[in-house]
Amino acid sequence: MKILSFNHPKNSKTMKIEQIYTGCLAHAAYYLKSNGEAAIFDPLREVQPYINRAEKDGAKIKYVFETHFHADFVSGHLDLAQKTGAKIVYGPTAKPAFEAIIAEDNQIFEVGACKVKAIHTPGHTMESTTYLLIDENGKEHGLITGDTLFIGDVGRPDLAQHVIADLTQEKLAGHLFESLRNKIMPLSDDLIVYPNHGAGSACGKMMSKETTDTLDNQKRFNYALRADMTKEEFIKEVLNGLTTPPAYFPKNVLMNIKGYESIDTVLDRGEKALSANDFEVIANETEALILDSRQTDDFAAGFIPNSINIGLDSNFAMWVGELIPDINQEILLVTDEGKEEETITRLARVGYDHAIGFLNGGFKTWKEAGKDIETITRISAEEFATSYENKQPIIFDVRKKSEFDSEHIIGAKNIPLNAINEHLAEIPKNQAFILHCAGGYRSMIAASILKQRGWDNFVDVRGGFTAISKTNVPKTAYVCPSTLL
């Protein structure tokens, strides 16, 4: 987590607002403090960092404000309320299965000498609410916008339809247009916009890498806030180019609505250190998935048969959600030593609460016990270039379609990683082939899935397309759509 402080406005003597940013989920929570009281907005599942932050200031957490029922992560609202006595607040129309304050539109909440005004802004979801921060002098300072307004984008309006059948993405987009025009755009230009996500989140399609901005800048540069935009134009542009949301999104929404186990219970269950023999017995006697979170080179050099590699060093939680269909799947973990708790926590952030133990001592324990291992062959970009020139190999590119369409190796077939399980029949078992992605992370996930399903006639390119593009492969081996017009 990365903390950014914003002590605005300068003449405020009591207000402190901090953005607590978690890069692997492109997620921003917020900490507001004034005169010994604090509020947390959109917390992640593990809540101790927020409690520690308030204790450092000598502040009591009074409210947990939720901008909406989140789809891309399981919020920490229940644990935070239970551990601190804070009240959970949702916007109008929210119907949680637990005790919470359901705010009225324009309702004011006091946090120390500051005020938080709930502004109902349906569109991303129907309960979506933006919170206006007002300092002790009555000066409006900033907007915590959730997934209603991002920097450079707005929240996708197609997610709630997967939970509420009679909502369509067109209806939601229409609501979002009205919320932006009637509730947000009339506010002061100097307000700071504090969104729930930044670039990399699947909750939008073209978010900026910046995580805050002024409302004035967004009115000028955000495509969805053009002053001359009609409602019909807005709906068309916002819905254009949306990809299928990750399969775990509706499941996370339901967990956020209905409730879940405490993170403490999840950690207790998962942090069971297992010997190599016990690990093997449990793997054989249950239907647990063996998930190896080590880096790609370490995994390729040796791994437990039938394990899947999703490295902790990148978008771990997102790919777990994309590729493990059952959110209640029991999971056995192989991690780098000391990374067990982090791995369990990051699984829980997206609702995978059923880790049942980890290999004590990591993979070396398995190897030293003389257990069976498997490997995956990786080749360099230079070796790929030689093979491409001399053998015309079969190539599978597992990047997103948009990446592939932008530039790819002539002759390569695109099977995006998140769709690999639906396209296994297109991958030969009797012919050798080469896998690659952009940098090697996703292709190793694909390689581990193929190994688990019985493929062993392939190699993976270390460094992926990024490394290949720097070799002496002829430039005609790359094609950009514009060159085909």
TrEMBL record:
CDD domains: POD-like_MBL-fold, RHOD. PROSITE patterns: RHODANESE_3. The keyword Metal-binding applies. GO terms for biological process: glutathione metabolic process; hydrogen sulfide metabolic process. Residues 284-375, 389-477 form the Rhodanese domain. InterPro entries: Metallo-B-lactamas, Mito_Persulfide_Diox, POD-like_MBL-fold, Rhodanese-like_dom, Rhodanese-like_dom_sf, RibonucZ/Hydroxyglut_hydro. One of its GO terms (molecular function) is metal ion binding. Pfam families: Lactamase_B (PF00753), Rhodanese (PF00581). This is MBL fold metallo-hydrolase. It comes from Emticicia aquatilis. The lineage of its organism: Bacteria, Pseudomonadati, Bacteroidota, Cytophagia, Cytophagales.
